[in-house]
Task: inverse folding
């Protein structure tokens, strides 16, 4: 006769709470325990204006609300994490403050103490810190990564934004004005603003609407031969798709994924300058990125906000130099004049000063967006006011932010959550076009 399994109690590490303050309420019917060492680390992390400090303060506010009006005697029975309504967690919150050591050792000691109380709870340590999880498992304590913020289970399921039209479906195409009507193939995950192509008649189109099992396709402009954007032409099919999305005024959010050298920044900057300088669709181009270093920090940077951000925006500046080179034989003076003109319409801004802002009629570029959390991406995208277009660029295979993975990156989160919105578009760029050396190195190294 087997005994029923003990109810689970999840011991939360500081790394989980500063990553997602709402983690307290993410375990449904299971209980949550916070060791005293975690409370001390939250207190140490609360100072400052960083995202970690803000999240630490938010956790403290949640705990203060849960503790309001409670007596010490009530704490031993745990605090209810929900109000009992639909969708509210039914577990309870416990504190383990009997250990006087500090840091990870105290957190492990708290988990071991719970584990020793046979018949009460089955403790599971939840941490974003891989080494702490290893130490826990070696000590005989179950340990898991925090996965409630995982945007997608399998990164291979992330949409590419591009699909080939099956031959049988293409044979049923019906002309409707300048567009085509196609039956949606069984099992196909076609979406509005998805780019489709067929090698058969060299057709490339974008889905404008889907209704009653039929998709309405509009032909795309050919930016590889017939047209260009600020002198830039697409070099492959995905780049042509990306330029069409970037130049479409009906699409408010574009996400471009791709490895180094696929042309994400150059295409985006060319589209922004064209619509700002030539078409006057936007007032200016705003560029920003997460300031995560891949080497040792070089210390404080002097100057204004834009001057401090300039070293971080090297990729954008490199591409701006390419776009600032005028045709003909205008010489050094002409190139300098063009560069000054472009710099006057391209503004570099820091993420640190984005809260509370509203961008009106701006072309906003979020570079290296794979290094942002889901909460940071929400904060930035919701800055968009009327007439603003937001472009998110990144390579999810190149994440530098601690505790972020391909499946928990804010860029992955945005692509997955907004894939069905009719005013968003997405393309994954496949081929590198930087140089034969860069292409070979990205594969061989």
Result:
């Amino acid at each position: 006769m087997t005994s029923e399994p003990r109810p689970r109690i999840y011991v939360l590490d500081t790394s989980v709470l500063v990553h997602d303050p709402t983690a307290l309420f993410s375990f449904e019917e299971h209980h949550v325990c916070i060791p005293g060492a975690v409370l001390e680390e939250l207190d140490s992390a609360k100072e400052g204006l960083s995202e970690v400090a803000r999240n630490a303060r938010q956790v403290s506010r949640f705990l203060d609300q849960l503790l309001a009006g409670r007596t010490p005697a009530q704490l031993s029975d745990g605090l209810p994490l929900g109000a009992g309504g639909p969708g509210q967690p039914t577990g309870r919150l416990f504190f383990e403050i009997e250990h006087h050591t500090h840091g990870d050792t105290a957190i492990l000691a708290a988990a071991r103490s719970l584990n020793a109380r046979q018949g009460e709870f089955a403790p599971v340590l939840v941490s974003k810190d891989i080494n702490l999880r290893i130490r826990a498992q070696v000590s005989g304590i179950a340990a898991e990564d925090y996965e409630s913020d995982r945007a997608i289970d399998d990164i291979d399921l992330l949409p590419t934004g591009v699909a080939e039209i099956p031959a049988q479906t293409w044979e049923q195409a019906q002309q409707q004005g300048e567009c085509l009507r196609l039956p949606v193939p069984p099992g196909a995950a076609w979406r509005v603003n998805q780019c489709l192509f067929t090698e058969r008649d060299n057709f490339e189109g974008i889905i404008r609407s889907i209704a009653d099992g039929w998709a309405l396709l509009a032909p795309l402009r050919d930016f590889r031969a017939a047209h260009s954007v600020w002198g830039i032409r697409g070099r492959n099919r995905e780049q042509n798709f990306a330029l069409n999305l970037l130049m479409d005024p009906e699409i408010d959010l574009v996400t471009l994924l791709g490895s180094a050298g696929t042309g994400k920044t150059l295409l985006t900057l060319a589209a922004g300058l064209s619509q700002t300088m030539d078409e006057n669709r936007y007032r200016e181009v705003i560029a920003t990125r997460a300031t995560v270093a891949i080497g040792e920090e070089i210390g404080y940077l002097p100057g204004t906000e834009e001057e401090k951000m300039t070293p971080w925006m090297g990729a954008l500046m490199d591409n701006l130099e390419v776009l600032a080179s005028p045709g003909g034989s205008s010489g050094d003076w002409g190139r300098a004049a063009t560069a000054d003109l472009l710099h006057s319409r391209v503004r570099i801004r820091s993420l640190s000063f984005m809260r509370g802002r509203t961008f009106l009629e701006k072309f906003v570029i979020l570079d290296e967006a794979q290094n942002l959390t889901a909460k940071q991406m929400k904060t930035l995208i919701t800055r968009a006011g009327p007439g603003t277009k937001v472009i998110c660029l990144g390579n999810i295979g190149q994440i530098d932010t601690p505790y972020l993975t391909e499946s928990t990156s804010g860029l992955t989160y945005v692509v997955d959550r907004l894939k069905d919105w009719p005013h968003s578009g997405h393309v994954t760029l496949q081929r590198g076009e930087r140089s034969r050396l860069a292409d070979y190195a990205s594969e061989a190294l």
About this structure: The domain at 228-291+303-444 is CATH 3.40.50.300 (Rossmann fold).
